[in-house]
Amino acid sequence: MVKAVRIHETGGPEKMVYEDVDVGDPAPGEVKVKHTAIGLNFIDIYTRSGLYPVPTPNAIGREGAGIVLAVGKRVKDFKKGDRVAYAGSAPGAYCEERNVPAEILVKVPKGISDRDAAAMMLKGMTAEYLIRRTYKCKKGDIVLFHAAAGGVGLIFGQWAKALGVKAIGTVSSPEKAALAKKNGYTWVIDYSKEDVAARVKEITKGKGVPVVYDGVGKDTWDTSLNCLSPRGLMVSFGNASGAVPPIAPVVLSAKGSLYLTRPTLASYTATRKDLDDCAKALFKVVRSGKVKIRIDQTYPLQDAAQAHRDLESRKTTGQTVLLP
């Protein structure tokens, strides 16, 4: 038996239970992984709360790193002792050990620690597809990213700077503004004190930005649309403040024939090639030193409920890792 943090019903952090589970042997196509670090992400809160329904009981969490303990039949690319990491899988990462489909695993290269791997996979691969594929940012672009001091935001800001992209970031406090500035953002707007749309128009000399990256959701939706230039792209990739209410398509035309996409990491890593290319791009930029993974908080696995409370109340910055 090994330990896991599971939910038997959806709700608040108090619904998370630290308990014994029996993992069993890996099935064909699976790999048994002993976790050394587990990433904390807002999608875990969506799962726990019921916003993203999953069968229960379930050890929530979609990101981890560790060591291969055993491989099932038909697994050719991994062996016992390999260092591996994954993200975006079916929930189940909040545990000491689990069986994982081999198709979602990647090998962790030298120069990347297990904690960094666990902290970077979901957020880093999200930043990769946002900046390189959803909208292919190029040198000189001015773009807007909400929650710049969050996990994805800090990676995005550094990556943008490395590409010569001028990023505007939004934050909720002077401390987070300073953090965002240190991590590549050319301009930082404290939305608790400033009108974001007005400031963006000032920065862009009235043009607006060609793309807004919005992982906040309900609270920033209208502001995001108002920051876009005509035919700009609204990238709604998260719901940290709650789900965006249904909208009428005519709103997009009224604001300048805007485009809207709601991307997911699963869609951008659906094939083995896409997953490998995404992970390799992330590992390369981290190993180059142009993007540094900032782990600001660690919690013992059994304290995952407190980690959720801190994340929901926006007390955290950068990456958070749970340690089995």
UniProtKB/TrEMBL annotation:
SUPFAM superfamilies: GroES-like, NAD(P)-binding Rossmann-fold domains. PROSITE patterns: QOR_ZETA_CRYSTAL. The keyword tRNA processing does not apply. Residues 11-322 form the Enoyl reductase (ER) domain. It comes from the Bacteria. One of its GO terms (cellular component) is cytosol. InterPro entries: ADH-like_C, ADH-like_N, ER, GroES-like_sf, NAD(P)-bd_dom_sf, QOR-like, Quin_OxRdtase/zeta-crystal_CS. Keywords: NADP, Oxidoreductase. It holds the Pfam family ADH_N. GO terms for molecular function: mRNA 3'-UTR AU-rich region binding; NADPH binding; quinone reductase (NADPH) activity; zinc ion binding. This is Quinone oxidoreductase. It comes from Vineibacter terrae.
